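Progress report, Aim 2. The chain analyzed during this reporting quarter is listed below.
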Amino acid sequence: MSKNYKIAKPIPSGHKAWSIIESAVPGTLGGNAPAKVYGRLDCPTALRFLAKGKYAPSRVFFHTEGDAIACGFRPCFSCLPEKYRAWKASQ
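Predicted structure tokens for the chain:
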């Protein structure tokens, strides 16, 4: 029996909406749904919150960075500082 992963995928509505699908392929990026932030799976900030027992219920995963952006998520300032700065400059 293979494991299924909960992956956030954009809904093609143009409103940065997303839904959760189950996939046999794990995500390459993690995200915090309420904060709308995505980052690497080894992000020190995310790992710190997970170790404290927080964040896990609201964690989502993405197959691609394009999916994270299309879902309305922004880059993490901790693990993706260059992408965060570029995002911040575009706001």
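The mean pLDDT is 89. The chain has one domain: 5-90. These observations will guide the mutagenesis work planned for the next reporting period.
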